[in-house]
């Protein structure tokens, strides 16, 4: 068991979100973005100026990806949309699946410009979701029968993908084609976390291939080496830490979202920072997420 490093960072956003998730960073504008999934909001923070904006969304959005300086890809329970960054206007781009009882959840852009995105039941019904590969307008189902898709991230050379079903808590590893982001073999268990407290939630992979994983229910970010060694644990001042993202001009800072979803009044009083968004306060060897290619 690794020791937990105490939180030394700061609160980036004091808004307590029901389900903070899906953070991303646009280096061209120095802006961090993340979602309040159940609150149907997209949050925007310009790091240098501290200017914060909240955009109300017409659906449950969970993933945002840069397309170019003027456009973003939004993934939601209503499908894929192109969002104009300046105006916020939304244009339907495509669909993932015809399951009204599902919503989107975790996702990341691969080095090829393709996207992996997971879906799940709105009440986390067992096996209701799936993980998809989106390349332009082509959608390919990769894995079916997923309950809570999370931890999607890729090695810096684009040859390995990681993902998890948080209901199972087996972090999975699969070889992928670096040119397409499609699997080239069978997924195997990278790290069996089923016997440990908390759920494996969102992850990012840094330039050294280290996996930075938010541990839901433990108020922590765990760091794993490419050989699955648990190297470090950093405390987050909110029990339901949900997803990290590399931010800053050098991608050397770590933003972490959190949530108060499913907490009763007593639990929220005991966890006063639940749902807030944090800068972990450490220097990381991060990297910017690739742009999604239409």
**Structural classification:** mainly beta
Average pLDDT rating: 97
Q: Count of helical segments?
A: 1
Strand order of the largest sheet: 1-22-21-20-19
Strand composition percent: over 45%
Question: Approximately how much helix is present in the residues?
Answer: under 10%
- Give, in order, the helices and strands: EEEEEEEEEEEEEEEEEEEEEEEEHE
Name the quaternary structure.
Answer: single chain
Runs in which pLDDT lies below 50 for 5 or more consecutive residues are none
Distance between the termini: 44 Å
Q: What is the 3D form?
A: globular
List the helices and strands and how they pair.
Elements lengths: L3 E2 L4 E4 L6 E7 L4 E6 L4 E6 L5 E5 L4 E8 L2 E6 L2 E6 L5 E5 L7 E8 L5 E7 L7 E7 L2 E9 L2 E6 L5 E6 L4 E6 L12 E5 L6 E7 L5 E6 L3 E5 L5 E6 L5 E7 L5 E6 L6 H6 L6 E3 L15
Parallel strand pairs: 1-22
Antiparallel strand pairs: 2-25, 3-4, 4-5, 5-6, 7-8, 8-9, 9-10, 11-12, 12-13, 13-14, 15-16, 16-17, 17-18, 19-20, 20-21, 21-22, 23-24, 24-25
